[in-house]
Amino acid sequence: MLLTILKSKLHRVRVTEANINYVGSITVDEDLMEAAQLLENEKVQVVNINNGERLETYVIKGKRGSGIICLNGPAARKVLVDDLVIVIAYAHMTPEEAKKYEPVLVYPDSKTNKLK
Hints:
The chain is mainly β. The protein has helices at residues 30-35, 95-100, and strands at 3-14, 17-19, 25-29, 43-48, 54-62, 69-72, 84-93, 104-106. It has an eight-stranded mixed beta sheet. A hairpin with a 5-residue loop joins strand 4 (43-48) and strand 5 (54-62). The radius of gyration is 14 Å and the shape is globular.
């Protein structure tokens, strides 16, 4: 049996852009991706703190050091620029693996999206 366990998250990052005319995904600053151990094309859940919306999409790499958090395509309709979101990645693990696993929790500055 495999369990779905919190792998990592970016907590309270600020949406810097919403681009309805893109195919889809969330663009994330490469520094933030590395800190949260997110891979390009990895499936994530995005939770909007401002309005309660939850959606699933995949990560694309944004310019390193830019602080970019951009919801693209249909997901852009679920956020406004300056909304705070949580980006969550999960992993499938056996119960034994899950007991030993420590999720990666990243708390950037919510005004600049820069690592503290």
